[in-house]
Amino acid sequence: MTGYGEANNGSLHCEIKTLNHRFLNINFNIPSSLSRYEYDIRKVLGSQIKRGAVSLKISIEDSKIKLDIEKAKIYYNFIKNLKQKLNIKSPIPIDPFLNFKKDEIPSWRVLKSVIATALNHLIETRIEEGSKLQADIELRLKKIDKLIKLIKQKTPKQTELIERFKEKLSPFIKEGIDERRLEEELAFSIIKEDINEECVRLATHIEKFKETINIEEPLGKYFIFLIQEMQREANTISSKARDIRISQCVIELKKELENLREQVENIR
Predict the structure, then answer these.
(1) Cβ distance 52 to 20 under 8 Å?
(2) Angle between helical axes of 196-212 and 220-240 (0-180°, round to 10)
(3) From the DSSP assignment, how many helices (H) and strands (E) are in the chain?
(4) For position 92, what pLDDT does the model report?
(5) How far apart are the first and last CA of the chain?
(6) How many CB atoms sit inside 10 A of residue 167's CB?
(7) All domains of the chain, ordered by start, with CATH?
(8) In angstroms, rounded to a whole number, what is the distance separating the alpha carbons of residues 58 and 39?
(9) Alpha helices (H) in 155-243, listed in sequence order
């Protein structure tokens, strides 16, 4: 899930961003002087973020200029000797000595505190986005549930299927037809057009979705599985339906299931 958090402590600045990703993937953009803390930083991030592409950026602003005098002396003497050997008369430039600025390395306690603060801000943004996603998912589940009930209402009763079947075969019945064969064809026709079983399974999947949506665990894969099962049931209903009204409801159902899948992708 996407999120953003930042924090400052004097010259130390920390920025953390997260994007959707199937696994935990952490990328660092930190000064080389802090590379010794990389393992510890990973542990801190991993304790709060279980999945996602994480980008961590840490910078240390120059509040005071402090030179590494010892390095500067070595460099100065090297240039001085080189000028003497090559008989160079020009003065020794000052600019290169600015590269010998001595970096202040923050302690792990200070660094951890800044990262933790930025991480808390990030978690807050993820929770806020998660609440909006949950509200949208629950709204789509209501729409899907309503469509399932509408499909069940429009589903012909078994008595209607029998009457429709008899009407279709009335010319053959008049001519005389094997009664046992008629019963077999009738049973096959009812099974072929009956979508009650699919509607029940769809409703069961919706209830499972509602039961688990508030669990504070990474359930994206489980939700994707439920949606795939619901799409399979919707396809079966579509192939069985003989009523144009049911077919129209199924089209809307498939549309909502696809929208639901896209939203669930954001919490994987």
Answers:
(1) yes
(2) 160
(3) 8, 4
(4) 74
(5) 7
(6) 10
(7) 3-63+107-125 (3.30.230), 69-100 (no CATH), 156-193 (no CATH)
(8) 15
(9) 158-175, 179-193, 196-212, 220-240
